[in-house]
Amino acid sequence: MAAFxxxxxxxLPGVGPKRAxxxxxxxxxxxxxxxxxYFPYKYIDRTKFYFISEIHAQMPYIQVKGKIxxxxxxxxxxxxxxxxxxxxxxxxxxxxxxxxxxxxxENLKLNKEYVVFGKPSQFGKRLNLVHPEMETLEEQQLKxxxxxxxxxxxTENMKKSFLNSRTINKIQLTLIQLAKGKIGETLxxxxxxxxxxxxxxxxxxxxxxxxxxxxxxxxxxxxxxEELFFIQLKIxxxxxxxxxxxxxxxxxxxxxxxxxxxxxxLPFELTGAQKKVIKEIRVDVNRGTQMNRLxxxxxxxxxxxxxxxxxxxxxxxxxxxxxxxxTEILAQQHFxxxxxxxxxxxxxxELLTGSTKAKxxxxxxxxxxxxxxxxxxxxxALIEDVVVFKNLGLVVIDEQHxxxxxxxxxxxxxxxxxxxxxxxxxxxxxxxxxxxxxxxxLDVSVIDELPPGRKPIQTMHFFENKRGQLNNFLGQQLAxxxxxxxxxxxxxxxxxxxxxxxxxxxxxxxxxxxxxxVGMVHGKMKPAIKESAMQAFKRGETQIMVATTVIExxxxxxxxxxxVIESAERxxxxxxxxxxxxxxxxxxxxxxxxxxxxxxxxxxxxxLETMVRTNDGFEIAEVDMKLxxxxxxxxxxQSGIGFDLKIANLGKDGEILQLARNVAIDILDDDPVxxxxxxxxxxxxxxxxxxxxxxxxxxx
Length: 700
Ligand code: ADP
Ligand code: MG
Fold this sequence. Notes:
- There is one protein chain.
- This protein is α/β, with parallel strands linked by helices.
- Among the domains are: about 45-140, CATH 2.40.50.140; about 255-285 and about 300-425, Rossmann fold (3-Layer(aba) Sandwich); about 460-615, P-loop containing nucleotide triphosphate hydrolases (Rossmann fold, 3-Layer(aba) Sandwich), CATH 3.40.50.
- Helices cover about 40% and strands about 15% of the residues.
- The chain has 26 helices and 22 strands.
- Helix 16 (about 405-410) links the parallel strand 14 and strand 15 (about 420-425).
- Helix 10 (about 215-245) crosses helix 26.
- The longest helix has about 35 residues, at about 215-245.
- The protein starts with a helix and ends with a helix.
- About 40% of the residues are buried.
- The protein binds adenosine-5'-diphosphate and magnesium ion.
């Protein structure tokens, strides 16, 4: 039975070798399976007719009934154009052809009733349909009632060869005709019955040729469910397997260092969310399996401190820890703030980055091997093979989205017998649906509370005409001793121009605020110069920092309370949110001011409105995902999970995803290695799937 879908499409009537080649080249469609899983992206209801008087050029495809009054042909040869004047009781419209004119002239008849289908356009004052589909009313009436016609994406090359959506539709109709009775089920019968799902065959047939909206909905549901379910099954099966295979260290003791820090050194009370998360992690590092946990928390929610507490736990249990950050600046910042927290405690903490001098580096290597260093902070330099620990028990990764899965895995191997626990921290809030998929193999802890005393940042959106007001406001704030960031966009295609913008902005600011010291950082500067400009701002020697997004991640200057973002319409939502997170770190009221030109598109407008409305990173992430699509969200590219979802949409199908995940969890809880007869189909799926094939077959 499987053989049917494995056949090559060149053998499908109406395709042939030439079209098959094109379909493969353009869409990578090779087999019947590939083709039948190439779903329409929209449907047109072919039962709906418009009156000609209702038509306007902004309509998508429309269908009208009427007759041809007369033909007119202008030009000759390749320039020839044929116009048919088409009318109904309410008005008339022109039908236009540039090709196939001879055929149209010979076959179309005056005063015969036609059904015409096409996309209206406007030419001067006249409405027309270019290259419409034509059928006589009799032909139309022979079709089944309530037919929805599927529309398929095609490419320019395909259109040039007349392989358009309509042709694909025809090919699909041929295929589903042949497919009847030949497509086997992929989900366990009990599951199909319990969820009242359409069979796979019925769904695949219906998705190309639904007869009504209810059918379409059922078929879509089944196919989305299946797509998401198999992803979840795969992720969760691997997770089960990993937990079984990899033992984990026990951090049993809550000892001297943890307690001493908590009672004597911790400068403030932990927030409830921090306590909750520390508890979750403590359970996790004491189960005998490797922890793989994602720690999510908005900027400034105090993730670093949580990481530090767990590192102390590691030390109390005789283990070393490392913390890996994506950039040199961040690694240094972590090193400084953690060193400060640990001042007075007898703990050796060191920094290792790409710019660590060879001699120092050698010393670090030795001290790591001997176990003298208990906490190592660094960048990618930590991953290098020469970095050998005595007994690495905990790996903390900050800002996960910059590291790929492969790099995570490399850190695991730093302890040969048992892999260290892994805690991944991210300030980029990830929508729940995405977390379930991209990080579906990780457990998730969320810090959903900011330390007390923080005043929510006030965000405003100004158009250019309020520049004067903005400057007044900045002047007042400077007088009060506040520090200000002013961020300009930097977009790679026009780097030169952006740099000019930045430099002009810098000049403008120095002119408006002659009494203030203004610094500048951008990505084209030498790291050392950038660093010293940042340090000067941090020490309060400069009051205004004009910058590009290089300051986006993690920089901590509590006295900076104002973030001005220029041309804010050019930034993505998560980027705006990250930038805003640079302020609001101290006790004073902070402000974020979004400057934009008047001309902004509707999506930009929604982004700016969202920023003004909420400070909640998760809410912002949801909007962001709906706007950009999940594939664009940071982290998904490196996740290792293909995002070529054919039908499900992580932005919209959260409920189906949750259901799919719950079902997968239930099934694996009941039958962890899928040995039961009723799960035979699922087992064979996992055994045949690229990602799970090897590792799965080794346990069952
Ligand atoms: P994140 O890494 O989540 O963005 P940080 O760990 O850098 O946040 O914390 C932001 C700031 O808040 C730091 O200056 C930190 O010392 C401080 N902080 C952390 N936890 C608390 C708390 N419970 N109460 C008060 N301040 C806190
Ligand atoms: Mg941080």
